[in-house]
């Protein structure tokens, strides 16, 4: 799918010869990753961007393709992220410099990552944490069980035992708790010395509910899904709630860097299980952040069965943004042809 158009390239108008909008589905551990890949063409140069499908936030492959195939500015943050990333990548390639330099410049060359612990039973949690700790990880993120309660405490206990007292632990609730339930449950997690509890409240919870939980919860909080609402994101960042930012949630690397600069509390960058295109964009943003980020959730490429771009991104506890022009990646046309859904 292609179109000829003009597009703002994050700092200047660039005449684009053609835009490809390609829906893809890639097998991954536990399911599939769906996204729309944007390829902006200018002569021999290409700019790459990725719009992850965030079904829990109302996006779909069909909707993203429609948004990205017309000349009307996109409505959803994921679509804006893909266009902004592709425009920045193209501009940086044209200028022969890494994308991080368009985001304010290098403030660090490598980013510490946290390990996503996917195991369920406590004994397997301990085994996975031990294995990832041996690989150099010092921060670990667990997903809260659907039923919650004692099961989460047992898993956190296993993780704390395996990781040791100096490691950082996080528990992500993905918005499963109401205000009353969160106020009742979070204090019981204090003995595990969490770095923060991520998104305990639903994404549409009011600012007042967050502020009340800050006072009564007894542990630090981080917002993820709630950052999709710009006014709420600014209020939470200003109130010192940690910001667990994703490019597809906020609308691109520039939005992530801007919110981090205005935040009064800790910041970190996570992934939506993107391909190397989205991960590279997030790494460039993380390297350009003015505040030093907490360990970032960007070691997720290992969960994909395949990838769509060639580049020097390797998994591990320390990741470096590719240093070549733009994102520092080259599109793998073979893989794109294999996983695209429009042919």
Q: Can you characterise this structure?
A:
The longest helix has 19 residues, at 77-95. The chain has helices at 61-68, 77-95, 122-134, 150-163, 179-185, 207-216, 230-238, 247-250, 253-262, 276-288, 333-339, and strands spanning 2-8, 13-28, 31-42, 45-52, 111-112, 115-117, 139-143, 168-172, 196-198, 221-223, 242-245, 267-269, 309-310, 318-319, 330-331. Helix 3 runs parallel beside helix 4 (150-163) and helix 9 packs parallel to helix 10 (276-288). Strand 7, helix 4 (150-163) and strand 8 form a beta-alpha-beta unit. The chain starts with a strand and ends with a helix. The protein folds into two domains: 2-96 and 333-339, Enolase-like, N-terminal domain (Enolase-like, domain 1), CATH 3.30.390.10; 111-327, TIM Barrel (Alpha-Beta Barrel), CATH 3.20.20.120. The strands form four sheets. It has a seven-stranded parallel beta sheet. It has a four-stranded antiparallel beta sheet with strand order 1-2-3-4. A two-stranded antiparallel sheet has the order 5-14. Mean pLDDT is 93; it is low at 2-9. With 343 residues, the protein is an alpha/beta fold.
Could you estimate the helical fraction of the residues in percent?
25-40%
Q: Class of the largest domain, according to the CATH hierarchy? A: Alpha Beta
Count of alpha and pi helical runs: 11
Amount of beta strand: 15-25%
Instruction: Count all strands and give the number.
Output: 15
Shape: globular
């Amino acid at each position: 799918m292609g179109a000829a158009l003009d597009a703002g390239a994050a700092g200047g108008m660039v005449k684009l010869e053609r835009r490809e909008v390609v829906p893809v589905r890639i097998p991954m551990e536990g399911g599939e990753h769906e996204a729309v890949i944007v390829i902006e063409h200018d002569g021999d140069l290409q700019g790459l961007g990725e719009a992850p499908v965030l079904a829990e936030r109302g996006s779909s492959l069909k909707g993203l393709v429609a948004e990205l195939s017309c000349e009307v500015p996109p409505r959803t943050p994921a679509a804006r992220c893909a266009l902004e990333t592709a425009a920045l990548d193209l501009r940086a390639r044209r200028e022969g410099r890494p994308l991080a330099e368009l985001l304010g410049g290098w403030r660090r060359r490598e980013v510490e990552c946290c390990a996503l612990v996917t195991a369920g039973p406590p004994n397997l949690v301990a085994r996975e944490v031990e294995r990832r700790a041996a690989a150099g990880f010092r921060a670990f993120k667990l997903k809260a069980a659907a039923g919650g309660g004692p099961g989460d405490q047992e898993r956190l206990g296993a993780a704390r035992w395996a990781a040791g007292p100096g490691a950082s632990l996080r528990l992500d609730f993905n918005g499963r708790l109401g205000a009353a339930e969160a106020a009742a449950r979070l204090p019981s997690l204090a003995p595990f010395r969490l770095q923060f509890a991520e998104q305990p409240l639903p994404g549409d919870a009011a600012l007042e509910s967050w502020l009340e939980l800050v006072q009564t919860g007894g542990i630090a909080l981080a917002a993820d899904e709630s950052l999709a609402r710009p006014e709420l994101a600014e209020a939470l960042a200003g109130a010192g709630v940690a910001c667990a930012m994703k490019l597809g949630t906020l609308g691109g690397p520039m939005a992530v860097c801007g919110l981090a600069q205005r935040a009064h509390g800790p910041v970190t960058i996570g992934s939506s299980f993107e391909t190397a295109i989205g991960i590279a964009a997030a790494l460039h943003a993380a390297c350009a952040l003015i505040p030093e980020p907490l360990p970032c959730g960007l070691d997720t490429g290992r969960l994909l069965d395949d990838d769509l771009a060639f580049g020097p991104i390797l998994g591990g506890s320390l990741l470096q943004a590719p240093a070549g022009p733009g994102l520092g990646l080259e599109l793998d046309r073979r893989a794109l042809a294999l996983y695209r859904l429009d042919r």
